[in-house]
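Lecture notes, continued. The same structure-token format from the folding unit now serves as the input rather than the output. Read the line below as a description of shape only.
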């Protein structure tokens, strides 16, 4: 488990640029399954011309029903472990890679960025990566803690919460990009 600081949009864009260069260098094709990031990882990557040669796409499966219908995610995992779990991020990565034969690597991210998250899940993110290695698949997972959002009903707290949630989404997306770049160095 890793506790991380919130990052800026410019840091997200730098990480996306670094990953786009790393994908090109390693001739690796990436596909994503995004839940809590809502497609922000894909948006960060697709700002670079030519990325379509290395970026296959992103499946934004924000709701549990979408996870099940689009990717055939396990009902058992959703019921017993919930969608905010290492098991679900592993499942999303495996299922998305299966559906994308041109991809070498799939990274899935799920978590709860609030507001109104159950206390035990608030600010928790799981990232899983699965890549093809010959006939087998290799997997790595990471848990990240962003800390709880402030709770309250006043307008100021609500505005702060909205800004913090966006920062958390940027940070989660940044964490995905950094993790993939790190994995490419080891492949």
């Amino acid at each position: 488990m890793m506790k991380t600081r919130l990052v800026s949009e410019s840091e997200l864009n730098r990480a996306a640029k670094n990953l786009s260069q790393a994908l090109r260098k390693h001739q690796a094709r990436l596909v994503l399954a995004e839940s809590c990031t809502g497609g922000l990882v894909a948006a960060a990557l697709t700002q670079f011309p030519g990325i379509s040669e290395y970026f296959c796409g992103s499946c934004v499966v924000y709701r549990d029903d979408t996870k099940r219908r689009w990717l055939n995610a396990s009902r058992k995992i959703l019921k017993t472990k919930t969608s905010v779990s290492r098991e679900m991020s592993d499942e999303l990565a495996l299922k998305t890679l299966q559906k994308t034969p041109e991809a070498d690597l799939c990274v899935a991210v799920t978590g709860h960025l609030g507001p109104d998250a159950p206390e035990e899940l608030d600010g928790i993110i799981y990232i899983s990566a699965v890549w093809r290695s010959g006939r087998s698949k290799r997997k790595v997972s990471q848990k990240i803690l962003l800390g709880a959002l402030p709770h309250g009903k006043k307008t100021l707290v609500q505005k702060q919460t909205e800004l913090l949630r966006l920062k958390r989404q940027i940070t989660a997306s940044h964490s995905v990009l950094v993790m993939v770049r790190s994995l490419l160095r080891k492949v």
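Point for the exam: The chain has one domain: 2-186.
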